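Worked example 3. Consider a protein that binds zinc ion.
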Amino acid sequence: MRDAALIRPARRGFAVLAVLAVLALAGFAAVRSILPPPAIPASAPADEFSAQRAFSEVRTIAAAPHPAGSAANDRVREHLVETLRGLGLSPEVQDTVSTQGGQLSASAGGTGLARVRNVVTLIPGSASTGRIFLVAHYDSAQTGPGGNDDAAGTSTILETARALTSGGKLRNDVVLVLTDAEEACLCGAEAFVRQHPLARDGGVVLNLEARGSSGPAIMFETSTGNASLVGAYAHAPYPVGTSFAVEIYRRLPNDTDFTSFREAGFLGLNSAYIDGAAVYHAPTDTPEAMDRDSLQHHGSNALAVTRELGGRDLSTLRGGGDATYFPVPGLLVRYPGALVWPLAGLALIAVVALGWLARRKGRLTGRNLALAGALGLAPIAVAPVLAQLYWTVLTLIRPEYAALPIDPYRPGLYRIAVIALAVAVVVCWFALLRRKLGAAALAVAGLGWLAALGVVLAAAVPGGAYLATLPALAGALAGIAALYLRDWAATAVITAGGLVAVVILLPTVVMLFPALGMGLGAAGAFLTVLMMLALLPVVDLLHPSAEPVQGLPAARARRRGALPTLVASLAVLACTAAGLVVDRFDAKHPALTQLMYALDADTGTAEWLSAETDTQKWTSQYVAGDPKPVAGTLPAFGAEELRTGPAQAATLPAPNLTLVSDTAAADGRVLTLRLAPQRTVRFVTLHVAAGTQVSAATVGGRPLPVTTSAGGGWGFGFVFHAPPAEGVEVVLTVGGTGPVRLRAMDASDTVTEMPGFHARPSGVGVLGSHSSEMVAVAKTYSF
Ligand SMILES: [Zn+2]
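Given these inputs, the predicted complex is written out as structure tokens:
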């Protein structure tokens, strides 16, 4: 080969520095552009969103854990009503019973339902063309005060309402929907969507959530056919969203209040900040944990998008397909989904043209290009595998990491380590093959993989195709230009091509890490590999000429070729070591444990239970052995397997199940029952023995599907959250005339009051889960 190097500027050292500086600056600007804006003080003008004003609401709302049905939740609701009245609005409380929204995993133990009390407020428009719904849930999980989840969304809506009512009237109606029982079963949103008159005509929903304590407020979910809506969202002052996130989220089993609205045909956007997820649902999710810049981001965008939608003709929003969109410094790039395939095809053609021209120019041979193409799969496959291994090794060093819900408290250095790991894999691969196959063959092969992946994504995940297609297209066009340019001009176009990859992919890597957590670091590693494949011409610039150069012996040239790999590998080690030092567990950042207690009122025996996948040291004093199904005595757990251990029986009253009436039906009986908790509980459950045919069921006046089955000898059942003290009416139509066995269970969150419980030492905390700290009492009845 005449020249294996791609570009060979006269003063290589200077060129390397200049190119790296430009790319680093572009990367910095791209990442900076998705970070939250600084919080605005309370002295801001009345029609602006001030995070400091909103934060005073956060303090009130998240003073204590306030799950649906709790006295603390009553206080929050009263405060919301009072605050909205203070703005001259007329809030009403929608008090009803609703079944669950979305496909919650809780369905394993039966259908979820709850008594909910939503706070609904209409701000009438001047000439409304439809309704805009601002939605957030005001209840919290039982294990934490919900300082972020979702006092962030609730306080954002209060501050937005304040700003809206102090400015001029909008054209369209705005409805503030502060929902209850989101954490329990998404029942509040479902109740509003299915039962409230203001929801009857549909509209546009902006749902505001938090799954962590910091990071940008990302618009991560849309209704389908989002082109016009995303156009409105682009008017936000700090738009951070990508059509890729929407595609990922649609494939995850997660649900928020938005699910109920979306499934009922509403249009809408769902936004949340998600970094700092170690506090998710935990006692550490306090107001103090909140990054107020994230609150400002939420609010600035929510207010601006509400004003934008508030002035539009909402009837024109529907239609048009899904758009592709992503943030670049200063704007949200948008183009119609119809362009996904043409662009993917164009990128493929451009890469083929580059390969053909490079061969004609003698930069590569067909054989080497084919080999490079085949071997190009290596870094794409190896880096994600190493990223997964990396997390496995970290959890071996720190077993407490295995119990964290999504991320460690301070995962920043580990994330950088995973990025460096992926960089190391690509530069090592490049250094090993560069002399044999030539830099040009490797670079074209790298772009070829990007273009091919763009086609695969266009078919499977169209909203994410731009991640591979655009860097491939830019890289190929730059490569073609570089073939006909010399020296500085060639270096400049190659840098421009790499710039596209950095600006598009680096912010996505930064958003993806908190979205999926360290446990799925493979995703971030994968996108980093894509970025590096597009940057191979720049990587090549870091290497001395592949040809023997006078005065530089071959051995030393090889050593220099290993330098980038060495630097990246050292970065992995340094970041890991520093990460382990920085991210230690202490009282403010406790290791997370999960413990429950269950009393079987039939036998008077009790046991400890834990849902931890790897038993933590603290928990091992209560439970041991392998996880096993517990549905036999606790049908609400469905197929879930738990570790157990013997416990001292506490004196706790079982939920009362009484027969109100028993009438004969066509081929069986209609039983009317009353299920009443005998203590303060968060929910009650009821399950019917598997052998009994249940053909219809109504609970709290709501008909339930009868197809659910709990397992462990139990069939149909339900979980009723926030039950009234007088109990819940249950009407069952059952087959046969023989006695019917039923298992009633209740649950409070009082594990620390049980006999034999020892207070957690400092540095050991509570995992934010829907069953943490639960005390269940179960009893079998027969009628
Ligand atoms: Zn939430």
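Take a moment to read the result before moving on. The CA atoms of residues 7 and 491 lie 7 Å apart. Residues 137, 149-150, 182, 209 surround zinc ion (CB under 6 Å).
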